[in-house]
Each structure stands twice: as structure tokens, then as C-alpha cells.
């Protein structure tokens, strides 16, 4: 399951989505996540499904790879769905002891699952199609207006991109540590949830040591390259909007308008 973590990974491909300006993808991801919380109707879900399917097709990222990122969060998704299923008042369909299942609870649980799954898939597509450097440049450019109030935008965007880049590295490192300990007789599969969590404590120590070592190496490398923050720095490849970026903004605007209409009129 650890190896199924896909957030922060970059998938190299020649696709229309890879060639878009990172600011377009950041805005698209943000608006997609926001619009998922707008409609509570079947029509809105269908519109979001069609939009997400089109984005995945354009990205040329294997669908199995996109789905793989959902697996580590299945427990959280399932638990959230059960809470909504048994705690929502409405027309009672089934009574299970002190719990009852209502028609409204089934709808809210299904809607929650779809919303969380789409949120994960949409966020993964952004990192699959955007390198850490592009992400840092896009964040810095998009949040550039905050420099007026003395917000360190460059440093902030750099930290976010490094954090995202470190996620797959640390996941891979954790997988190697667990395999090394399993080869020496460690058992991480048996026992209840608390026992299995206790068995992971010896794994966390070398993982933290490795993370600190990598952070120190990165700091030394940045210092050796005379990195001193964003002030006075120039870009090798400055971001410029192309015709495809404006087309993407237009499609995104249409999608947002349709989702708002679905939220207002509650189609279906």
C-alpha cells in the first residue's frame, strides 16, 4: 500500500496537459476541488465525471496509475462514508440495532465517496503532469501579488514544491526499510490495528534519520549553488501563456459555470 502513494510523482509523457503553463493547472485543480463541493445533484456529478475523464485522457497518464493513488486512503474514505451512512436523518430503510440507514444517508455517503475519489484523482493529475520546478515557478508567479504585503512568495513556493517532491522519495525509502526489516524476520502484517502501528515504530526512526540526512544534503547542494532566495533571481525558462493556455482557461470557465448552474438549479 505504501508503494501506491502517487501524490508528488511526475509521469513523463508528451501530452497537451504536460505542455500547459503550470499556472493553468494550478488554477484548474483549485477550481475543480472547489466545484466538487458545490452541487449535490446527479447532474453535477456527471459533469464532474466527464470533465475528469477528459483531463485524464488528455494527460495520457495510465488510468491504473491514477487509481493507484486512491488505495492508501481507502480506509479514510470508507470510514467517512460509514459515518454519513449511519448518522444522517431521513427516510429509514434499514434498522441495524441502534443504527439506521436512511435514503438520504445512502445518497450523502455515495456523494462523499465520489467527491473524495475525484479530489484525489484530480490532485494527482496535476503532480503527474507538472515537474517540481514548474510547480515552484507556477506558484511563485501566481502568488506574486502577495509580495506587496511582504510575503516571501518564492521561498513559500519552493518549500511546497520540495515537500511534494520528497513525498515519493520518502515513500520509496520507507518501503526499502520495511523490506529490509522483513528480510530479518519483522512481521508487519499480523495483529490488530494497534499492534501493527506499534510494529512501525522501529521503522520510523531510520526513516526520520534518512529524511534529515536528505534535507541536509539538499541544503548543502543549494548553498554550493549560491542559492540565496528569490530576490534578484532570473529564470532560464520564464513562464509565458500560449494559445493553448487561453483555450484551457476558456474550457475551465465553461466547466465552472455549468457546475454553478447545477448547484443552483439542482438538475436531476
- Residue fraction in strands: under 5%
Secondary structure class reads: mainly alpha
The SSE order reads: HHHHEEHHHHHH
Mean pLDDT: 82
Strand order of the largest sheet: 1-2
Number of strands: 2
Distance between the termini: 37 Å
Instruction: State the major sheet.
Output: 2 strands, antiparallel
Per DSSP, the total helix count is: 10
Outline, from the CA principal axes?
flat
Residue windows where pLDDT falls under 50 for at least 5 positions: none
Helix content: 55-70%
Rg to the nearest angstrom? 22 Å
Characterization of the model:
With 268 residues, this protein is mainly α. 65% of the residues lie in helices and 3% in strands. The chain has ten helices and two strands, in the order ααααββαααααα. Strands 1-2 form a two-stranded antiparallel sheet. The protein is flat and about 65 Å long. The relative contact order is 0.16. The mean pLDDT is 82.
Quick structural overview:
This protein has ten helices and two strands, in the order H-H-H-H-E-E-H-H-H-H-H-H.
